[in-house]
Design goal:
The structure holds 2 protein chains of 2 kinds. Chain A has 1 helix and 32 strands. Chain B is an alpha+beta fold. Chain B is built from 3 helices and 13 strands; from the N terminus they run ββββαβββαββββββα. The longest helix of chain B is centred in the middle third of the chain and has 29 residues. Classes of the chains: A mainly beta, B alpha+beta. The interface between A and B is large, with 75 and 60 residues.
């Protein structure tokens, strides 16, 4: 009966999805023209916006240094004109591409931070540069190494970087890196921070095998830090070694910033008195490490965000994906009690992954996600926005409706990413996602402004390695590219 | 070999580059023509100044190149801008060109990242010396790679893959469940033994990585019927604590059989 009710509620909510309302939707393929020949799988993007100069942005992805695949530096993409154009800048040390990377700009300075997993020794590093456009390699601020005998499987994983200004110390940032530190498994949900080089095991209970890979943070302007992670309670291994079954809790913790050496995020406690409560208890899902849905592995997707309005600092949203690996379900819930209690699902989206939440200055919540259509073999990347925070009357912007690449094109997992990223500038929603770069306008249905930096013929749906006036102009195969987007009101 | 900032290139001198780029395109590359480059940095417009035929004194192989004056660089980044007005060497790759012909060429990544820039028209003799230097550097790089692989491996042999089976994760490798290597098993017949307690005609089993996870990208995949030189290392080298199994886990753990002489030299020297 419960399941029937849930399906009925879902049908209800989707009936209320509204078409894109008046907004300028810009979508830009960030691969530079000079790299038009490339066919790399540029998946798993993150975006950072400089809060002091929001026209400056940076995007990272699992991008290889095209100019030199043997280089010791991996590239990021940088824009100085609000995302209209992007240049590549190879500044991430540790190999010609990273095993994981996310970016964040400082709040008190123009510094850009990157959290990476190096490919040469699988260490997690927090890197910093005072100038995102500088060709100088970023400098290491923190390191969480991986012992030789644990590489590369049991090392730090999926570092996600956040920056916050320390109250009363305007010139100082505290930079946080949430990660899945498999060196310390089974209690692997971890938080490192730059001041005092502090670190904290978020997990206060004993998970089965490990915590889930994604660990996410939300930081309030009033100096509160919230963390969310998957506490795996029961892991089942199948005959198929690429698939595991999991029953776990989606845990949320809270604490005060700045974090100090002996901190615990103990402001929210469970029935057992330990830090963290199960916002969504005992969820069953499957995690695949091989192509499961449209060529993409599934199983571990999580997002957490705070309402930035001063009078709404108790409001949090959380999104995650659970369910069967072949047909997972994305959920969004809300807390108006600083994480102590959580609503039922505000919305459920079938066959959807990579949730990324953001709340703008007006309190409108945005949800970026990628949904697979098995009938048409397509991935649709959308943003839902809800002005009242309920998703009952959400507006949907379809940023990309692109065919999933043939299985033979898969270079590695994840195909699209284990995450994408959504941010805000004022009331605008700004983000990054990865998708097939087939240049057909119909594949970007709600984009008013659509721009490829790489050479493309939109009438033929072809990519080229050379400019239109070149004598020799070979075509280039489609591949996965990182895209920037902005929904401007 | 020293590293030179491409922006410091001056007309009238020869260079051999092994540059580490800090920005896309700062790696100055041998330009190619006529096909989609596998990798590269810049798209360059310009004209052919001279076509040169050269023969290597070392291998006897011949090669035809053109010296190409760059009029416009489309990349907009180094070395594109730095190359405007410069003369670079273009590997013709079988495409016929004539002097003064206007072309668009693409920079490309040469093996071992060893790249040439030629800043003036040279004589065949000078060209020959430059080419030999490049070939020597490539060979040195391969020799070093093989020496490291031989030193690291427990068993080294030329072998034939006679069977491949997919496996299940070994418990000892599984604390990172989703990053697990998902080891498969290959049955290998030794054709020629180089290092370790093995003989020709021996048959043994070896792990190989089946995982598609991003951190295993580049791990060698083996196929039935494949004949290669295998450098087998213990599974503990990849975090499989307690496992005694040997396998091929790294990109450098499998080498084309045509490079056997480098392996023989490395084994002799150790």
């Amino acid at each position: 009966m419960l399941r029937l009710l849930r399906i009925a509620a879902l049908a209800c909510c989707f009936q209320w999805l509204l078409p894109a309302r008046a907004a300028t939707v810009t979508v830009v393929d960030v691969i530079p023209a000079s790299a038009s020949f490339e066919t790399w799988q540029d998946s798993e993007p993150s975006i950072a916006i400089n809060p002091k100069h929001p026209e400056q942005m940076a995007i990272s992805a699992l991008t290889q240094n095209y100019a030199s695949p043997t280089s010791a530096l991996a590239p990021i993409f940088v824009s100085s004109d609000s995302g209209q154009t992007w240049m590549a800048n190879a500044v991430l040390p540790g190999g010609s591409w990273t095993a994981d990377v996310t970016l964040a700009f400082a709040t008190a300075s123009n510094d850009l931070y990157a959290a990476v997993i190096r490919r040469d020794d699988y260490a997690m590093e927090l890197l910093r540069t005072p100038d995102a456009t500088s060709p100088r390699p970023m400098i290491r601020v923190l390191e969480r190494g991986c012992p030789l005998e644990k590489r590369p499987s049991n090392c730090p994983d999926q570092p996600y970087v956040y920056a916050m200004a320390l109250q009363g110390q305007l010139a100082t940032d505290q930079v946080l890196v949430a990660s899945n530190n498999l060196v310390s498994a089974p209690k692997s949900a971890y938080l490192d921070w730059s001041t005092e080089a502090g670190s904290l095991a978020l997990e206060s209970r004993i998970p089965d095998w490990q915590d889930g890979p994604p660990v996410r943070i939300a930081i309030s302007s009033q100096g509160r830090v919230y963390a969310a992670f998957f506490h795996w309670k029961e892991v089942t291994q199948y005959a198929d070694p690429t698939l595991i079954g999991i029953v776990g809790d989606v845990i949320v913790e809270g604490g005060s910033a700045p974090l100090t050496a002996d901190d615990v995020l103990g402001a929210i406690s469970g029935d057992d008195g330990r830090p963290g409560i199960a916002a969504a208890p005992a969820r069953a899902f499957q995690a695949s490490s091989a192509p499961s849905m449209g060529g993409q592995r599934v199983g571990n997707f999580l997002s957490l965000v705070l309402d930035p309005r001063a009078n709404m600092s108790m409001r949090l949203y959380i999104a995650w994906t659970d369910g069967n690996a072949e047909s997972p379900m994305l959920h969004v819930q809300r807390s108006d009690t600083a994480g102590a209690m959580w609503s039922p699902d505000l919305i459920e989206i079938p066959n959807a992954i990579n949730p990324a939440l953001a709340v703008n200055e007006a309190g409108t919540v945005g949800l970026l996600y990628q949904q697979y259509d098995a009938a048409n073999l397509e991935w649709t990347t959308s943003v839902l926005t809800s002005r009242d925070g309920t998703f009952a009357h959400a507006t949907r912007y379809r940023l990309s409706v692109a065919p999933t690449p043939p299985a033979t094109d898969l270079a590695f997992q994840p195909l699209l990413g284990d995450y994408d990223n959504l941010q805000t500038i004022g009331n605008d929603f700004v983000g990054a996602f990865s998708a097939n770069n087939l240049p057909l306008k119909r594949d970007f249905p709600d984009a008013n402004v659509l721009h490829y930096q790489r050479y493309a013929d939109w009438s033929k749906g072809e990519l080229y390695s050379a400019p239109p006036n070149a004598r020799v102009r070979p075509t280039v195969s489609t591949s996965i590219d990182p895209f920037f987007f902005r929904i401007h009101y | 070999m020293s590293v030179l900032d491409p922006t410091s290139i001056v007309t009238g001198r020869e260079y051999v580059f092994a540059a580490t780029p800090t920005q896309w395109g700062s790696d100055v590359l041998v330009a190619e023509l006529g096909h989609e480059p596998a990798s590269g940095a810049a798209v360059l417009d310009g004209s052919v100044q001279q076509v040169v035929h050269a023969r290597s004194t070392g291998t006897g192989a011949t090669r035809t190149t053109a010296f190409f004056k760059v009029s416009q660089a489309w990349s907009g980044q180094a070395p594109g801008a730095a190359l405007s007005g410069k003369v670079i060497k273009v590997e013709l790759d079988g495409v016929p060109v004539v002097k003064n012909e206007h072309l668009t060429v693409y920079t490309s990544d040469a093996p071992i990242n060893l790249n040439l820039v030629h800043a003036d028209i040279t004589t065949p003799a000078q060209e020959l010396g430059l080419w030999n230097e490049v070939q020597t550097a490539r060979q040195e790089q391969l020799e070093k790679l093989v020496q490291e692989s031989v030193s690291r491996a427990t068993l080294v042999f030329e072998g034939l893959v006679v069977n491949v089976t997919t496996g299940s994760p070994e418990a000892a490798c599984s604390s990172g469940l989703l990053n697990n290597p998902q080891l498969g098993m290959a049955t290998l017949r030794v054709v020629k033994a180089y290092k370790g307690a093995i003989r020709a005609t021996d048959t043994l089993s070896a792990d190989f990585v089946q995982s598609d996870d991003v951190r295993w990208a580049g791990a060698p995949k083996v196929k039935k019927g494949q004949r290669s030189i295998f450098f087998l290392s213990p599974a503990s080298a990849i975090g499989c604590v307690g496992s005694t199994q040997l396998g091929v886990y790294r990109k450098d753990d499998v080498l084309n059989a045509s490079n056997a002489r480098y392996v023989e030299e490395a084994v002799r020297s150790q």
